[in-house]
Amino acid sequence: AGKLGAEPKEEGRGCEEADPARAMELAEAGAAGCSQAVHDQVVPTRNSSSRVIIHVDLDCFYAQVEMISNPELKDKPLGVQQKYLVVTCNYEARKLGVRKLMNVRDAKEKCPQLVLVNGEDLTRYREMSYKVTELLEEFSPVVERLGFDENFVDLTEIVEKKLQQLQSDELSEVTVSGHVYNNQCIGYKTAKRLEALGISSVHDLQTFSSKILEKELGISVAQRIQKLSFGEDNSPVTPSGPPQSFSEEDSFKKCSSEVEAKKKIEELLASLLKRISQDGRKPHTIRLVIRRYSSEKYCCRESRQCPIPSHVIQKLGAGNYDVMTPMVDILMKLFRNMVNVKMPFHLTLLSVCFCNLKALNTTKKGPMDYYLASSLSTTSCSGKRSFKIKDSHMEDI
DNA sequence: TGGGGTTAT
DNA sequence: ATAACCC
User: Fold this and answer.
1) Mean pLDDT of A199-211
2) For chain A, what is the HEC assignment?
3) Per-residue pLDDT, A14
4) Which nucleotides of B are covered by protein (CB under 7 A)?
5) CA A28 – C1' B4 distance (Å)?
6) pLDDT at residue A44 above 70?
7) Which positions 110-169 on chain A have a beta carbon less than 7 angstroms from any atom of strand C?
8) Which residue from A90, A251, A315, A346 could staple onto A293, CB 3.0 to 4.6 Å apart?
9) Which nucleotide is nearest to A102 (CA to C1')?
10) How distant is C1' of C7 from CA of A171, in Å?
11) Does the keyword field hold Acyltransferase (predicted)?
12) pLDDT tens profile A321-331
């Protein structure tokens, strides 16, 4: 199955959204099978250059986590609320007309018995999400995450091993039934641009002039989506590994003073520091993101980022050093760089992001290390550059 | 539209 | 730093 085309987007068709245990059954079936059925027609064994990839998509993930935490919720219509939105809901609720991303007021109107739990804190969802990924990684290390509730697993090697074990008379008996996917064109912006070109179905895209498409969308996007329209996707399943960034955000109706903003930034930062200390790696870059109020249309985010000073990074992990104060200081500088606080302003979102994560330095301490570290900390090099310099010196030593 | 994520430019 | 994409 192609990676990007693999998910049927219509709801309510009883499509194969699965729990992890069922996913494992499917994986076993896939490993045993040597043929794929398309339109109920059995096609021969995959050839040596093709791959076997499973796509595991967890059903109404946040709602499931809540139902596991509190089984009393299991047989009730349940919605997970973030601000004034029901971001997802269980099937009881869907039967009664509640939809994803529905207004709380509309949802309550449709379904007065709806039970709501607050899902603004993603901690438990994030933890469960990584448990699922780690479970899948036991089968193959090649697991790519997409959001919190989807994983792609490349099972090619497992399948090949299984096929070698099977006797030839067993081979002919195994079949796996397939799935036929419907027309759907891709991301929002690209879909709009395609529509402007008169392309509204997969078939339209298949038959459209490659040259014109390349001129309109750029060669990279054009060639990729046109291959996708034929079900061809040679992109690898890229192991996600640990996250490359940690962020916390909060949205609100109005924030219009620096003091108010500072309070919110401090809250976001406190949560992030907890998370980062658990992770063990250290961020070398910090970013502040804002969203300004705008009465209509799509509202863009703005951001400012800077390297985290090395003396702050060092104090990040253990110890009771106050890392909040210097960090808040940096963030407020970034804030004033974006927002002219002498003028009236109206923000609707603040977000803090730690990125450019690096593993702890595992090199053994030598006699020169203290000298090298202190001399480098006084330079104005970027983190990347100074690490390169340090590494080369280490090799020399 | 929330609260996250990734990659490309 | 932003824009596009994904959930």
Assistant:
1) 92
2) CCCCCCCCCCCCCCCCCCCHHHHHHHHHHHHHCCCEEECCEEECCCCCCCCCEEEEECCCHHHHHHHHHCHHHCCCCEEEEECCEEEEECHHHHHCCCCCCEEHHHHHHHCCCCEEEECCCCHHHHHHHHHHHHHHHCCCCCEEEECCCEEEEECHHHHHHHHHHCCHHHHCCCCECCCCCCCCCCCHHHHHHHHHCCCCCHHHHHHCCHHHHHHHHCHHHHHHHHHHHCCCCCCCCCCCCCCCEEEEEEEEEEECCHHHHHHHHHHHHHHHHHHHHHHCCEEEEEEEEEEECCCCCCCCEEEEEEECCHHHHHCCCCCCCCCHHHHHHHHHHHHHHHCCCCCCCCEEEEEEEEEEEECCCCCCCCCCHHHHHHHHHCCCCCHHHHHHHHHHHHHHC
3) 30
4) 1-9
5) 32
6) no
7) 146-150
8) A346
9) B1
10) 37
11) no
12) 799 999 999 99
Nearest residue (Cα to C1') for B2? A82
CB A218 under 7 Å to nucleic chain C: no
Catalytic residues of A: 150
Q: What is the pLDDT of residue A319?
A: 67
Q: Is the CB of A156 under 7 A from strand B?
A: no
